[in-house]
Each structure stands twice: as structure tokens, then as C-alpha cells.
Amino acid sequence: MTASGALILTGAAPTSAISDNATAKLPGTRAVVTASAWHCNVYADKCSFKTSTKVRKGKNPFKVSKVSNVATVKANGWQATLSLSPSGTRVSENTRSISWTNTNTWISDISGVADPGGSVNTSITTCSDGGAFKSGTKVFASACANG
How far is residue 92's CA from residue 94's CA, in Å, rounded to a whole number? Predict the structure, then answer.
């Protein structure tokens, strides 16, 4: 591959995303909680990410007392560092966490931009830990997009 070909590849907009989903049933409701994690597939400098927790009964939104989402983004690689926008809570030099809880609704989303750094960055990992609470019942689901 030529140097100009590499520049075009790394500068190109992502054609696909790396993602993962996980589900859990909310007891006594027939509703399902879905945790989703997504981040860009190809990036030159920064990478968009998004996590989501959604509660549905069939194909319809299902309102719960609380729906929470914790996004954890990690830069993988030797001496990796990470900064996020929005900033989030520092877990370690290469990991940040952001949480969001909504009440009396069915969805909790978090999105932002990850800026990994360090000597050799190979990838990022984006995880979504979602929870739903209704009438004293709770359930959690976790998904991680790796790569």
C-alpha cells in the first residue's frame, strides 16, 4: 500500500461501526432491557462513541421508574491514555466512565468523542452497563464493543 493510500484510508469517514448489544428481561413485566455500545470502526485521531439503554415491551417503548446507562470507554495499547468529551469520571489513565439516569421514561443514551493517545494505540473498547427499575424490580444488562 502506498503512503497516499494509507492517508486516504485513515482519513476516511467510517463505513461501519463496531457494536455490541445485550438483553435482559424485566421480571413481571414482559419487557426487555437492551444495553448497546457502539464506536467508530476507523479513525485517524478521535473516535465517536455511543451507549444506550432501552426498555421495550415487544416493539413498543415501555416506561419504567428509572433507566440508567453507564458508558465506559477504554484505550487499549501500550502506555495508552484517553480523554473524552464529555469528560466523564477518570477510572484510570486509559479509562473513563460517564453515567446517566432518566426517570419515568424508557431510554437513557450517552454519546461523545474519545481521544486516545499514547505510544502505541491499537484500539478502544466501549461498554454500556444498563439498568431498569420498576415497582421494586430491577434488571441489568451489559454490552461491550471491542476493537
Answer: 5
